[in-house]
Amino acid sequence: MRKPMVAGNWKLHKTIPEALELVEGLKKDVGDKQDVDIVVAPVFTALNAVAKAVKGSNIAIAAQNCYFENSGAFTGEVSPALLKDAGCSRVILGHSERRQIFGENDDLINRKIKAVLAEGLDVIFCIGETLEERDSEQTMEVLRRQVVEGLKGVAAEDMQKVVIAYEPVWAIGTGKTASGDQAQEAHSFVRGMVSGIFNPDIAAQTRILYGGSVKPDNVDELMAQDDIDGTLVGGASLKVADFARIVRFEKI
């Protein structure tokens, strides 16, 4: 059995006081949930404060990005070692906004994945196709490339520290959502890719999250799919009630 994970990507939102207010609300609302791994990813400036606030709770802290070097002349970057020092246990890498807005390619993301794993942190590895790629029937080709290139050189034993998040770019911030069947098809394909790269046992153990306009009103249908093991939540993670409802999903 793969334990579900619900991760909230706060993106560029929340001052430190606002972040603390949000996480305190989550602790009160879902602090009793032990059957779901709960993760929040604040902005860099709030990481340490939020990490201290959730210490001893069932909420883990992720960073939204990092660089692949631990130190050096890299102005404006944050390293895996610094994130670990700030209280993070995992890092989101390859998010569609990093790919689309900031031009991160598969090779760069792969270097980041290996650097994060080398530091002993877990990875939430994001993949997904654009609307143009879906409309031109390139979805599986894109996912194949992203998975193969992103996991290149990752040791089989390190896959226990990797969670994959399928996030169709066309469904992020647009109000559109992949149907349960569309999401399941992609998740099943990705699991098959992991099986081919590593082995069926590792594929069976790897958690694959869905990310793409996850809301309280669609999480139950998504989580009913065989190969969807949780969600990577954007906007709905900024409100206690919405995120708590997603954490308390009910399989239909």
TrEMBL record:
Keyword Membrane included in the entry's annotation: no
A molecular-function term among this protein's GO annotations: triose-phosphate isomerase activity
Reaction catalysis annotation: D-glyceraldehyde 3-phosphate = dihydroxyacetone phosphate
Pathway: Carbohydrate biosynthesis; gluconeogenesis; Carbohydrate degradation; glycolysis; D-glyceraldehyde 3-phosphate from glycerone phosphate: step 1/1
Main location: cytoplasm
EC number in record: 5.3.1.1
GO cellular component, as recorded: cytosol
Active site: H95 (electrophile), E167 (proton acceptor)
UniProt key word Isomerase: yes
Subcellular location per the Swiss-Prot or TrEMBL entry: Cytoplasm
Keywords: Cytoplasm, Gluconeogenesis, Glycolysis, Isomerase
Class of this enzyme: isomerase
A biological process term (GO) from this entry: glycolytic process
Residues holding substrate: N9, W10, K11, G173, S213, G234, G235
Family annotation (InterPro entries): Aldolase_TIM, TIM_sf, TrioseP_Isoase_bac/euk, Triosephosphate_isomerase, Triosephosphate_isomerase_AS
Subunit structure: Homodimer.
Biological role: Involved in the gluconeogenesis. Catalyzes stereospecifically the conversion of dihydroxyacetone phosphate (DHAP) to D-glyceraldehyde-3-phosphate (G3P).
PANTHER family: TRIOSEPHOSPHATE ISOMERASE (PTHR21139)
HAMAP family: TIM_B
Entry protein name: Triosephosphate isomerase
Organism of origin: Geoalkalibacter subterraneus
Lineage start: Bacteria, Pseudomonadati, Thermodesulfobacteriota, Desulfuromonadia, Desulfuromonadales
Encoding gene (name): tpiA
